[in-house]
Specification:
This protein is of the alpha/beta class. It has 13 helices and 10 strands. About 30% of the residues lie in helices and about 20% in strands. It comes from Anas platyrhynchos platyrhynchos.
């Protein structure tokens, strides 16, 4: 029977039960921001874990060392929630360093990491994203602060061998318009992401400016390997030159272009009036 996990109930599990558990999820919005559900010492009993989900602020360097120990079976999936509230109440000072990630992946060679970040400042994300994380999926959701182009660029450079899913959502109310990740940059970070991350199969963008010519470049770069490319219509912007001599809605012209310039990407564009599917 499923029950709400608390520090007390988790500690009360018998050793035989803890030893046989393969999946453990410790994500609960009802737990106070300064409460930790499990410690590194407690995690030592879960020697057969294949997948683990928890708050990033609770995933310490000591936990990474425990999971990297040879008496633990290789971990396959690590899902980490990074939330501005947790960072406010807790600290990132105990998070794993790059050498901890290296040790963990030596024991768990097939490990893949999924990170979901809510309203995390770019400076904090640049601290969190260590080079040796085998990051497969990342989902940004913003209501207060926006992701910077520097964060997207770092992800594309460090995780080009692993990244398959990249979701970027922004619900910040800003009357001046959507943030433009390519602003004052020679290259658009999303185009570089599509170029570097050869395993990318899903790219979804909502609430950030995506220039039409960059959208075409992304589809061309990944071709049919990019199974899902989802961008809200409101996010697409056009150069003034592209709008000249247009008799119809330029978005419809962009969709028509897929048969000529982006035919290798059968899911070139999903225009969603209510937001991005995920």
């Amino acid at each position: 029977m499923l029950q709400i996990v608390t520090p007390t109930s988790l500690a009360s599990l018998s050793n035989p039960i803890a030893n046989t558990m393969e999946h453990l999820s410790l994500l609960d919005n009802h737990i106070p921001g300064n409460t930790t559900l499990i410690t590194a010492v407690e995690l030592e009993r879960f020697v057969n874990l294949r997948s683990l989900a928890l708050d990033f602020c609770d995933f310490t360097a000591e936990m990474a060392r425990v999971l990297a120990d040879s008496n633990h079976v290789p971990l396959h999936r690590l899902s980490l929630l990074v939330h501005s509230v947790s960072i406010m109440h807790k600290s990132l000072d105990s998070m794993p360093e790059d050498e901890n990630w290296k040790a963990l992946t030596r024991n768990s060679t097939n490990l893949r990491v999924y990170i979901m970040a809510f309203d995390v400042k770019s400076d904090d994300m640049l601290r969190i994203l260590k080079p040796s994380i085998p990051l497969e999926r990342i989902h940004f959701d913003s209501y207060i602060t926006c992701v910077s182009g520097a964060v997207v660029d770092l992800i594309s450079r460090q995780y080009d061998k692993f990244l398959t899913h990249f979701i970027l959502m922004n619900d910040v109310i800003d009357m001046s318009g959507f943030p433009d990740l390519s602003d004052n940059l020679n290259e658009d970070p999303l185009v570089l992401l599509a170029w570097r991350c050869t395993r990318l199969s899903l790219l979804a963008v909502h609430g950030y400016t995506v220039w039409a010519h960059n959208l075409i470049a992304i589809a061309r770069l990944r071709g049919s390997d990019l199974k899902v490319l989802e961008v809200t219509e409101e996010s697409i912007d056009f150069d003034q030159g592209e709008l000249a001599d247009q008799d119809v809605d330029p978005v419809h012209n962009l969709i028509d272009l897929r048969s000529m310039t982006c035919c290798r990407c059968p899911f070139f564009l999903a225009l969603l009036s209510g937001g991005v599917k995920h």
